[in-house]
Write a structure and sequence with these properties.
By secondary structure, the protein is mostly beta strands. The chain has one domain: Immunoglobulin-like. Helices cover 12% and strands 47% of the residues. It is built from one helix and eleven strands. The radius of gyration is 19 Å and the shape is elongated.
């Protein structure tokens, strides 16, 4: 019994150590703006994530998962046809900031039959981290995850 308890304590201690190894990336803000186009059936979402970490660390972004959109790579050479994605980096003397800007476009008007209409639904989360979105990144040669628990919703935009 003492062995099992000691092993459990050891596992818990390791999980706290791993959490500390992945802690430098912090969420500043997460916003979402829903929009509808002037043509029937066209709609989408614009996402904006602002992240910060100390400039003394080296962090490489890997990918981002959005609950109703899917997973997208954040490397500069990757292109996505159904989702626009841009990463901006700003560096000060003490901090580095990442701004991840994403946008989806859906056109339900292209469907031939009412039964074919695409309905936005939750997309499977490959990272098994709870949240509305998850950013994966590399820190100290270890893959880490930052959960975005909830988005602040901006007022929707309805184009004429």
């Amino acid at each position: 019994m003492k062995r099992v308890l000691a092993l459990a304590v050891h596992v818990v201690m390791l999980s706290f150590c791993d959490a500390k190894k992945c802690s430098p990336l912090k969420l500043i803000s997460a916003t979402r703006t829903e929009w509808a186009g002037g043509v029937a059936g066209r709609h989408g979402s614009n996402y904006n994530l602002e992240l910060r970490f100390s400039s003394k660390y080296k962090i490489e972004l890997d990918s981002v998962w959005f609950k109703t959109e899917g997973t997208y790579g954040l490397k500069q050479e990757e292109n996505h046809s159904a989702f626009s994605l841009q990463v901006k980096t700003k560096t000060s003397s003490t901090n580095t900031f990442f701004e991840i800007i994403g946008g989806s476009f859906h056109d339900d008007g292209l469907r031939q039959h009412p039964d074919d209409f695409e309905k936005l639904q939750d997309v499977s989360n490959p990272f098994r981290v709870k949240g509305e979105a998850v950013v994966s990144y590399f820190f100290n040669k270890k893959k880490c995850f930052l959960a975005i628990p909830v988005f602040s919703n901006n007022p929707p935009i309805n184009y004429p």
